[in-house]
Each structure stands twice: as C-alpha cells, then as structure tokens.
Specification:
This protein has 225 residues and is of the alpha+beta class. It has three helices and 14 strands. It has two domains: 48 residues, no CATH class; 150 residues.
Length: 225
C-alpha cells in the first residue's frame, strides 16, 4: 500500500485542525443528547479532518520529456483564467505572455518548479487578500515572486494569496539550481499562480483549460541554439 505524502510545511495546520475538530466532537458527544443530531455533527468533523489532510497532499507526478529544457510546465493544478500579452514590471521589465492558473479548494495546492534552471530572483510582497480572480489581486494581494532562467530564457512566476489563503511557502533561493517538477512551495487554500514567458514562446494552453502541475505543458521556450 502506498502512503499519501503530506506537504512538510502543513503538518502544523493539519494538527491544529484536528485538535479543533476533536474538541467539537467531544462537545457534540457530551452535550448534544439527541443522537440523530450529535452523530451527523461528529461525522462532519471526521470528514473535515480527512479532507484537510487530503488537501495538503503532495502528488506523485511524472515530468514529461525531462531532458527538454524548453518546456514550461504548470506550477499548480487548476484552471487557466488568463492568457495575455502584458508588461511585466517587477523584474523582467518587458512585454511577456502571462498565463494565470486559478486553484479552487479541491485542487492540489503544492506548487512545482516550471522549468529546470537557476533561480535568479525572489521577493516576498505583503498585501491584501482580495479574491484570487480579482484583476488587481496580482499586484495588491500578498504574493511571492520568483524568476528562473536556463539556456532558453527566463520564466517569472508569482504565488498569489486569495481571500482564504493566508500563508505562502516558497523555496526560492537566488543562485540555486532547481529542476522542473520538484516542489517549490505551497499556497494554503484557494489562490492563483501568474506565470510570465517570453513573447516568442509557443503557448500550449488557452483560457478555460484545466491543467495539472508538473504534467501539463503551458508553453515551449524559443530554441536559441
């Protein structure tokens, strides 16, 4: 039997949730004498404990074409909500193609490196907690920004907090070499990823597509060899 892997940074959240649920189960069993009411309440708490554990799972995914460094794979599971030409003003400071993926409560919330390469840049930005699909959430919400590069170009991405996402974990360390498909962090609860690729990149997704972290190719970087 293969055990489910849990995100290393989420054990505290899971334990806190379990403790709260355990107290609520005790109170329901002790102070609600009506069985047809107390049993469903306890069952709901148990189901929530199972869900919160499952929510922070780290999936075992196969990285497509591991030797092709041109491939840009999705950082997160979710739905593509933006594919557009924009000016990236924080770090790249040039026109790019922005690909945004929105995660709901039922998507895997662990994030994964989109390319293999060197981490050039990282910055954490405190901010608001607007709904993740709000047009201004990319700039105003709490988020972390990272940029990676390899022989084919740069890929810049943001992990953006939403209304319910109150903690972003990012493993970016400037100067470190990372590999596509390895975990790069986690966003706790619903949120989104904004990813920026060169204008010359061959984008493989469109608005409305469902994508899977690691497995879905979002774009192919231009061949510069």
């Amino acid at each position: 039997m293969k055990w489910i892997k849990i995100d290393n940074d989420s054990y505290g959240t899971i334990l806190t949730s379990w403790c709260v649920c355990a107290v609520l189960i005790f109170l329901a069993a002790r102070f609600v004498p009506i069985l047809w009411l107390s049993i469903p309440l306890c069952a709901m708490m148990v189901l929530f404990m199972i869900f919160i554990t499952w929510f922070f799972r780290v999936p075992n995914r196969e990285t497509p074409f591991q030797d092709d460094d041109r491939l840009v794979t999705s950082v997160a599971d979710g739905k593509v909500v933006i594919v557009d030409k924009v000016y990236e003003k924080e770090y790249l400071k040039k026109d790019c193609i922005q690909i945004s993926v929105y995660m709901d409560f039922f998507d895997v919330h662990c994030n994964f490196w989109p390319i293999s390469g060197k981490v050039e840049y990282y910055k954490y930005h405190p901010g608001k907690y607007l709904l993740a699909f709000h047009p201004k959430s990319s700039e105003l919400n709490e988020h972390s920004s990272s940029c990676m590069s390899n022989a084919y170009g740069q890929v810049f991405f943001k992990q953006i907090a939403g209304t319910f996402a109150r903690r972003i974990v990012c493993y970016s360390e400037p100067g470190k070499i990372e590999y596509r498909g390895d975990q790069c962090g986690v966003i706790k609860f619903g949120s989104r990823i904004d990813l920026f690729v060169p204008l010359e990149a061959d984008v493989k997704v469109k608005v409305g597509d469902k994508v899977r972290a690691v497995e879905t190719v979002l774009a192919i970087l231009p061949d510069r060899q």
